[in-house]
Amino acid sequence: MKYAGLLVLPAGFFLSIAAIVLYAAPGPRAAFVLCGLAVEGLGLVVAVRGHMEARGEDN
Amino acid sequence: MSPVLAPIAPASAGPVITEAAFALCLVLLLLAPLAIAGVALINTGLGRSRSAAQALLGNLAIVAVAAIVFALVGATFTGLADGAGHTFHLAGKPWNWLGTGPWLLGGLGTWGAQSQLALLFEFLAVALAALVPWGSGADRLRLTAGCAIGAVLAAIVFPLLAHWVWAGGWLAQLGVNFSLGSGFLDPGGAASIHVLGGLSALAVVWIAGSRKGKFPKEGFSTALPGHNAVYILFGCLLALVGWLAFNVAGALLWLHAPLSALAGTALGTLLAASGALAATFTVTRIRFGKPDASLCANGWLAGLVASNGCAALVTPVQALFIGVIAGIATPLLVEVLELAVSVDDPSGAISVHATGGLLGLVAAGIFSPQTGQLVAQLVGIATLFGVILPFVYLLFWVLNRFVPFRVDPDGERIGMDLHELGGGAYPEFVIHRDESYR
């Protein structure tokens, strides 16, 4: 789970980069950059959840 | 005392720094190590007494290792302020991704004033960034592991990010290439120092795991409070001087701010920290009945970190508002990380440095009058999470195979001081048996 989340993070980054390359208009550009950040947010949540599953193992 | 609100030229295209600005910037950078001293004291105070000497020695050693490695390797990949670097072309635009500075600081005396000051700023910045994960790994991170982490950050990760942000890299060029304001702006190091440090801290905590007894399999997490509130709070006062220096020097170096804008930047820094402290004080008083000293210190520091991203770009009153937001968010996030998601971060580095830095970077975009500046800031943030966090995690995961991060269980039981140094920071203290080991 942790690694899956960490792999999703670059996907969000590339979405943000694609937004600034493909769109010139400020509206769609901003919207797609926000989508990229949302994908990164999902990846972070998955990675954090992966860490939570390990709770108690080291204790 | 207005902030730098006019469109900002990238450093490579900026005017040559004047003699007065050079002298002022140099003096400020000589004060900036107080930020390092403050963070070192805070890291030490928030750990346990049986690990205090190892914690403070670790802070010193990490600063030393980061400086040496940055001089040998990192400074080359960061590149000079003139923006020269390795570039590839994509979609008809140049993407400058790696600096090409001289090896081993060659020809330093012949560099321009701007490049020399930028180098000094970067040395101090990398030392501060490398300290942040050390605080999060307190009480279980081995000294050699802390130094290795500092070396990796100074050799690879910080140079990449610093080049992208400060040395004419692709993030700095977002304004020129994609009409996004003045490109990604990070005058005080909110991204290159603090978000990098905070995300590195998260990676360290994930890899090293929590302290023994922190998260029992059943019930709530165990409170392991810092051992010296005086260190923590005095560290906050020291840090203020260093942060003022970083923010004002950063405004001069990276934004080419006029001298008339510097007092506003300093005031913004102070007000952001003050607003954050007042907010954290209030939140913890409401939440726990009494203000919490260590959380108030975290709030103060979060306000300072947020000011790194925006103090030179917003008015002092706006900085105060941003500080209040940081001060409200910090204690709540510390609680969420510990209680809800089981992240054992003794120094609160993830909440303070990562979140405070992000807040400052976003605020710089929100309050900017320039079209596209907010999008530039968001692209920078997407880079931090989408590239830097996975990259740092991968590097640390590999590093952990060769230099194990975590001390053995016996070392954690007797304390890092006795285990790694053979003597305690407070030899007159009786070391009690840890109740969590029953």
Describe the model:
The complex is a heterodimer of chains A (59) and B (438). Chain A is 83% helix and 0% strand. Chain A is elongated and about 40 Å long. In chain A, helix 1 packs antiparallel against helix 2 (26-53). Chain A is built from two helices and no strands. Chain A has 59 residues and is mainly α. Chain A has helices spanning 2-22, 26-53. Chain A has one domain. Chain B has 438 residues and is an all-alpha fold. Chain B has one domain (26-85, 103-214, 223-437): Ammonium transporter AmtB like domains (Ammonium transporter fold, Orthogonal Bundle). In chain B, 64% of the residues lie in helices and 3% in strands. Chain B has 15 helices and two strands. Chain B has helices at residues 19-31, 33-46, 52-78, 113-136, 143-166, 174-178, 190-208, 229-254, 262-288, 293-310, 316-340, 349-366, 373-402, 409-414, 416-421; strands spanning 85-90, 93-99. A two-stranded antiparallel ribbon of chain B has the order 1-2. In chain B, helix 1 (19-31) packs parallel to helix 4 (113-136), helix 7 runs antiparallel to helix 12 and helix 9 (262-288) packs antiparallel against helix 10 (293-310). Chain B is globular. Chain B starts with 18 loop residues before the first helix and ends in a 17-residue tail after the last helix. In chain B, 63% of the residues are buried. Mean pLDDT of chain B is 92; it is low at 9-13. Chains A and B meet through helix 1 and helix 2 of A and helix 13 of B.
Give a short summary of the structure:
With 59 residues, chain A is mostly helical.
